[in-house]
Design goal:
By secondary structure, this protein is mainly alpha-helical. The protein has one domain: Rossmann fold, CATH 3.40.50. The chain is 53% helix and 5% strand. The protein has four helices and two strands. A two-stranded parallel ribbon has the order 1-2. α2 links the parallel β1 and β2. The longest helix is centred in the middle third of the chain and has 14 residues.
Amino acid sequence: MLSDLRQAVKQADAVYIATDPDREGETIGWHLQQSLRLKNPRRVVYSEITPQAVRAAIAQPRSLDQALIAAGRARGLSR
């Protein structure tokens, strides 16, 4: 499955990571970045799965939050 994702990434113009909006979600996003060798993933966060909420989140992407990643890794979420 990881190889399938890597192939898809090669064909993508951008990669958006939309995991949970907490330190665990940020750490999962970091793991995806590392595993898929992503250079500049865009982080999006939304609290409801509706077309309007997803479009609004994609219109306002950000980088992965290094402070949340550090907190998640410190709590043992990264092994």
